[in-house]
Amino acid sequence: MSRTYVDPASITPARVRLSLFALAIGAFGIGTTEFVAMGLLPDIARDLLPDVYATNPELANSHAGWMITLYALGVVIGAPTIAAGVARFSRKTVLFWLAVAFTVGTLATAVLPSFGWILAARFLAGLPHGAYFGIAALVAARLMGPEKRGRGITLVMTGLTVSNVIGVPLATSIGQSMGWRAAFLLVAGIFALTAVAVALVIPRVKGNAEQTLRRELTVFKRPQVWFAIGIGAIGFGGFFAVYSYLAPLGTDVAGIDPAHIPWLLATMGLGMTIGTLAAGHFVDRSVRRTLYGYFLMMVVVLIGLYFAAGWAPSLFIFIFLVGFASSGIGPAVQTRLMDVAGDAQSIAAALNHSAMNVGNAVGAFLGGLVIGAQLGYRAPIWVGLALTIAGILIVMASYRAQRHLAPHERL
Known about the structure:
The chain is mainly alpha-helical. It has helices at 13-39, 41-48, 50-55, 57-64, 66-85, 91-111, 115-126, 129-144, 149-178, 180-201, 213-217, 223-235, 237-243, 246-253, 261-285, 287-308, 312-327, 329-340, 345-372, 379-402. Helix 6 packs antiparallel against helix 10 (180-201) and helix 9 packs antiparallel against helix 15 (261-285).
């Protein structure tokens, strides 16, 4: 990779588009690796926990959900520590090595023999997640310029949502027919492609040579940063409480054939993709209204999902709406964090994904808890509703606290 730094303002529009596409490939891989376990949960439980599955499939499924939780925990820990530690290095170099780390961690998931070792691999695979997304968001925002930064961030995150239309259903189908390990081998290949794409097309954008780990960590002294983290960690947990157990919701409640679960996942992904593309324009106009609008939509949709889940056609409709309603929260929280973080932009951009994966871990854990308590596969929907409402309350508290700031500190 060239050592010559490039001024983002001098990059041609074609190079900008190629760069955003390369970043989106990584997001596509991340979305596939993060969400594919949800579609293959029964297959993973049956293979890795055969004795438990034979006697209590619900308990085995909830234990297999630990793969989701451990990956999310890796994101939570890795995002701030890696992003803060590499803030002074070239964005391109960091993105390349993060893609390599993804490749190795996902490959380990596919080949390690036991449930315990696979849980460890999922934790390690999650470590680069937040740092990749955070740094990719900074690069995208810089390439697009301040007036279109919201659209730049959402274009990268579109890779995440498109993964739910194509990557997750495809990997789930492969996992069902060839074994769940084959799905993770596919994802490892996507990450290897990402590393190549980053090396070839991403311009060498400078980091902040004067930034240190200590200076980046001062971001945690800002109350508004904690509010934004809370919005993602609690509010977005409502989505994951539902999504983590979507496969058994479809098969056991709506009576969908397991072979059709990839179509259900694709429907969720389609809603997420459309919602994300729309959110880019809304975020550039008002982060606050975007947060309120998408969260309130999520409340209405989750209530409808509970009553619609028993019939396959209505389940598909409301799963699409869940995907749409949830998809605007991520870009809005990402932009909010970058607004309130001051000079600590690297760690702020990554913290969004720490927050989202706290939501992932909390949603998956609480959803598994109510399933393990024999409350049925609809119960996580109520968990999701409670977490979503809590997210709205945190948004309200954040903007109420902001009123007490000096005018020049308000955002």
